[in-house]
Write a structure and sequence with these properties.
single chain, alpha/beta, Rossmann fold, 7-stranded mixed sheet, 18 strands
Length: 437
C-alpha cells in the first residue's frame, strides 16, 4: 500500500520540450504542487492561467502563508495578476523542506547534466523551447545562460543526493521523464484523483479548483450520486450565472428550451412590455433569463423563503430587476398578468426518478393528483380571473399533455392549446394562447 503524501515539491528545472512538469500537474492538481527554483527570485501563481512555465511557484494555501511572511518584510513589486517579483528573497531548498518537514511530501529534483553547452543549445532550438525572455539573446548569451543552468543543476543534484531525493536529468528524453514522474505521482499521491466518467472536463476542473485538498470527500459524494451542480455551486443557464444549492431544483436543459420557446411565443404574438408572473420560481432562472432577453415587468413567487433568498441573489448577480414574492402559487390571483409562466412540481408520487434527485427539494419535484395538482389550481385561478392572460406557458411531464389539454378545454375555452416537444422528442411544454388576441 502506497504512503499518503500531502504536497508535491518540484525542485529545479521542470521544462520538458514545449511543456513543463509544473503546468502538466497544475492542469489536474492546482494548489497542491510547489515548484521551487532558487536560481531566480521570481514566483508566480500560475493556475488557472497556465502561461508561465519556468521560475514559477504553484502555491497551495500553506505555501502562500509561508511566502506572505516574506512579502511583509521585503520590498515587492506587483507583477500583474500572477504574483510578485520579490527583491532580496532567497527561498532556498532548505527553507522549503524546513517549512514542510512535518508533512509527507513527494519531492522530485530536476536538472540537466551529461550534455555539452552546444548540444543543449541545439536541442532548445530544435524543440522550440527557447523561453520568451531569451528570444532576443545572441548564441553567446544563451550559452552563458545554459552554463548557469548546468551549474545550478549540479547544486540541485548534490542537494537531492544529500537528502535522498530522486533526481531526473531532463537534458534528454524530456517527455519520457515528465511521464515517469506524472505516473509516479498518480500512483502515490493522495490528492491526484481520477475523473469519474460521468463528469465533464470543465466540471472536473471547477471541482478541483474549488475543493483542492477535499477531492477525496468530493469523490465520495459523487459516488453517492450527489449532484455535481450543487458541489460547484452554480450553473450556466441561458447565458445567465445561476447559483444553486439544496434549496432549489437544478435547472435542466429542457427548461432552457422552455425559456427559448416563451421568448419566441411573445415575439410572434406581438406581446409588448408584458406584466409577467413566474409561479414557483425556485432559483429564479426562468424569470432572470426572460427579463434579460425581453422588455417586461417581471414578477416571481415561491413559497420557500430560502429559495427566494437565492433567487434574489441570482437576480442581483445578473443585473435584473424582478419583483419577488413569498406566496403560495395556487392562491395567487391571475387578474393582473399578461403572461403566466410555471414549471411547477409535476412528478407523480409513484413515478421513478433519477437517483441524484433525492438531494433536491422533494416538494419541488412531486405533486399530488398524478402530478396535476398545480396545473389544476392555476387553471382554476385563471378561470375565475376577470382579465385573462394573453399567454400561459407550462413545462409538463412527458405523459401529461393530453390531461392538461383536457383541463383547459373544460375550464378556459378561450385558449388555443399547443403541446410542444423537448430535445428528446417528448411532450414537455404546453402553451395557451388567448383566442382573439
Amino acid at each position: 500500500m502506497s504512503e499518503i503524501y500531502k504536497n508535491i515539491i518540484i525542485i529545479g528545472r521542470s521544462r520538458c520540450g514545449k511543456n513543463t512538469l509544473a503546468t502538466k500537474i497544475a492542469e489536474v492538481l492546482p494548489y497542491h504542487m510547489i515548484h521551487v527554483d532558487s536560481l531566480r527570485d521570481t514566483f508566480f501563481k500560475i493556475f488557472p492561467k497556465l502561461e508561465i512555465g519556468v521560475d514559477t511557484a504553484i502555491i497551495n494555501k500553506k505555501f502562500q502563508k509561508f511566502l506572505t511572511s516574506y512579502l511583509k518584510k521585503m520590498k515587492t513589486q506587483s507583477h500583474g495578476e500572477f504574483g510578485y517579483i520579490l527583491e532580496g528573497l532567497e527561498l532556498s531548498f532548505e527553507n522549503v523542506l524546513k517549512n514542510f518537514k512535518n508533512e509527507k511530501n513527494l519531492i522530485y529534483g530536476l536538472g540537466i547534466e551529461n550534455i555539452t553547452v552546444e548540444k543543449y543549445l541545439e536541442q532548445m532550438k530544435d524543440n522550440d523551447t527557447i523561453y520568451d525572455w531569451t528570444y532576443n539573446l545572441s548564441d553567446n548569451d544563451l550559452k552563458k545562460h545554459i552554463r548557469s543552468e548546468l551549474k545550478h543543476s549540479k547544486e540541485i543534484k548534490n542537494f537531492c543526493l544529500e537528502h535522498k531525493i530522486p533526481f531526473y536529468n531532463t537534458a534528454q528524453n524530456r517527455e519520457k521523464v515528465l511521464n515517469e514522474i506524472i505516473d509516479h505521482i498518480k500512483e502515490n499521491y493522495k490528492y491526484f484523483p481520477t475523473k469519474p466518467k460521468n463528469i465533464t472536463d470543465v466540471d472536473w476542473k471547477l471541482l478541483i479548483e474549488k475543493y483542492q485538498s477535499q477531492m477525496e470527500e468530493v469523490l465520495n459524494r459523487l459516488e453517492k450520486n450527489y449532484p455535481v451542480q450543487y458541489l460547484i455551486g452554480n450553473v450556466d443557464f441561458y447565458d445567465c450565472f445561476i447559483k444553486v444549492n439544496e434549496n432549489v431544483l437544478i435547472p435542466r436543459f429542457e427548461t432552457e428550451l422552455f425559456v427559448e420557446k416563451i421568448l419566441k411565443k411573445m415575439e410572434e404574438n406581438k406581446i409588448i412590455k408584458p406584466n409577467i408572473i413566474d409561479l414557483g420560481t425556485g432559483s429564479g432562472c426562468i424569470a432572470i433569463a426572460i427579463k434579460k432577453n425581453f422588455d417586461c415587468l417581471m414578477n416571481a413567487l415561491d413559497i420557500n423563503e430560502k429559495a427566494l433568498e437565492l433567487a434574489k441573489e441570482n437576480a442581483y448577480k445578473n443585473h435584473t430587476e424582478i419583483n419577488f414574492m413569498k406566496k403560495n402559487m395556487i392562491k395567487e390571483p391571475m387578474d393582473n398578468y399578461d403572461v403566466v409562466i410555471s414549471n411547477p412540481p409535476y412528478v407523480s408520487s409513484n413515478e421513478s426518478v433519477g437517483k441524484e434527485t433525492k438531494y433536491e427539494p422533494q416538494n419541488a419535484i412531486f405533486a399530488e393528483d398524478n402530478g396535476l395538482f398545480f396545473y389544476k389550481n392555476i387553471i382554476k385561478n385563471i378561470k375565475v380571473s376577470k382579465k385573462k392572460p394573453k399567454l400561459i406557458a407550462f413545462e409538463i411531464g412527458m405523459n401529461q399533455g393530453e390531461s392538461i389539454k383536457k383541463l383547459v378545454e373544460e375550464n378556459i375555452t378561450m385558449y388555443q392549446v399547443q403541446i410542444e416537444k423537448d430535445y428528446q422528442n417528448r411532450d414537455r411544454y404546453i402553451f395557451l394562447k388567448k383566442i382573439g388576441d
